[in-house]
Amino acid sequence: xRNPHSNGNVPKLEEADDATEENGYGDGVILGLDGGAxxxxxxxxxxxxxxxxxxxxxxxxxxxxxxxxxxxxxxxTAAKDSLEHVISEALSQSGSDKSHVRGVCLGVSxxxxxxxxxxxxxxxxxxxPSHVKVYVQNDAIxxxxxxxxxxxxxxxxxxGTGCIAYGFDEDGREARASGAGPILGDWxxxxxxxxxxxxxxxxxxxxxxxxxxxxxxxxxxxxLSSPDELIGWTYADPSWARIAALVPQVVSCAEAGxxxxxxxxxxxxxxxxLSVKAVVQRLGLCGKDGxxxxxxxxxxGVLNANRKWDIGKEVSKRINEHFPGAQTIIPKVExxxxxxxxxxxxxxxKNDVS
Amino acid sequence: xRNPHSNGNVPKLEEADDATEENGYGDGVILGLDGGAxxxxxxxxxxxxxxxxxxxxxxxxxxxxxxxxxxxxxxxTAAKDSLEHVISEALSQSGSDKSHVRGVCLGVSxxxxxxxxxxxxxxxxxxxPSHVKVYVQNDAIxxxxxxxxxxxxxxxxxxGTGCIAYGFDEDGREARASGAGPILGDWxxxxxxxxxxxxxxxxxxxxxxxxxxxxxxxxxxxxLSSPDELIGWTYADPSWARIAALVPQVVSCAEAGxxxxxxxxxxxxxxxxLSVKAVVQRLGLCGKDGxxxxxxxxxxGVLNANRKWDIGKEVSKRINEHFPGAQTIIPKVExxxxxxxxxxxxxxxKNDVS
Lengths: 354, 354
Fold this sequence. Notes:
Chain A is an alpha/beta fold. Helices cover 43% and strands 17% of the residues of chain A. Chains A, B: It is an enzyme of class 2 (transferase).
């Protein structure tokens, strides 16, 4: 993935005076977007030159939510429509319009390859005047930025519907692990956890596996009367998010002492920690002696569910066993704000912005 | 699933004389269909009363092949169209028409529930005169019949794109294991083996797993240059059969000594044998002392690939370790002929057919 640090030539905005009158932020606005597997969030914030101290909390001028923008999940047309809608809505709330925008940064799940990046960038570029800077990043990168105020250093682990570990070293080298979707074995994701749980129910039902509390708990949650009906339920709608929504049931069963559920969550924690370990080792984030300090930003419903069986805490424990210098960070802002910080980082060239 | 043994009232066919003139089989014809995850085969054979000795080999008057008829995979309209097409083609080849048909038996993958069965039965019934008997069965049942000349006793194991174990005891009680599709953990299927192999490539690439020969072998087979491109390839087309087609590459790597590939195949053999074990134990096919004799019919490309690393042989070995009386059968005829035998079984009431 291209690192767009060099795009620092910010054009003077003809509409800067209008912007001052309308929202009180004469330097224009920034749009930050987070496109996850379940929903897409867009925030509109004032532009601050990167390197200056950002106000805390950063003022959110507008915020809007739309559906999934992963074209692998919903197709190209639906993904593009959702993006257009959520941008217009956030701008409208902020009292700004496209002429006030200095930069847009999108973190999009499913952007795994330069050609993906180029396609999404093209969609957005068409929506704005040509001087607006557009940055498209994997959603993992904006999630990292949300824990580091836009600095690309350290590792982020996202575990929501999908999962991915992504990291940068001080020289801008990057590495990732997981994030390859359900067919390709993201077993620590919400989808992965739920698919394992559904499989355990089927195996108990047909005699291949032990009985589990998951059977009654999941059937009740879905309003089904027999495990046989799970097959039709599963394939009636291929959405990954629908399957992943069963994670709370798995956690409940594990908390109630169900061994099968406990094992599924332990395996998920192992797999998630393994993804972080792979990224940290490839980038040497822990230094030569393995004790160096670096941030690990933890994002997503699977890691931050605040349950008694705490998957995020189990993952942190495993990471710190390998890397005592790892600093686990749960971001105070959402990934879309991270995208906005990142846009400010990319837009700003030191000593070149007033 | 309903056992239609009782449907034995065969109406006298008005067109019987025509049938005699046209194809030389005055008792009319039977259509047998096998609808797998990849293709659908229809054969047209002469009707013989069940219990009589069938001629060997049974004369195939017509045979046609169409695409997938699993509505979970291709949708209802495509599934129905494929069925209509393959039936017309087989009848046309045999020189018969719908008026000569006495019974139709379809084994359809994805028929997991009485409501599924009813829907497919309804499609077919509309294509024929009302006196034609129509039987819709899970494709596993017709595969069993292909190894037992239509007798529903013992266990069948199918492992092609998908996998399932299905069995009947002497009293007509039935049981199944697996056959729940890729999300629900059919790891011994062609899809399951290939998905594990693709996952191994991704894990080796991002540092979570060991290097494997699968990387170069699979990339070469798919014409891709990097494991990163596998993600786009995998999700570009959700067809299970397309993924499952990578099994020969996994077998080649295992034969060449790749440990990761070997483990994937060993796990698959374990899982397939476990499915048979679950069915046999639930039905008590092995008798009280565990040594009773019963057939295990083995069907599908994963089991009968005739490779040096022989998955079918490994599965047989595991089955016989548990059940010394299990008789492994590789059918000499295809499952569609099993469906035809089954229709004759269902149509015939002893001493009631001349």
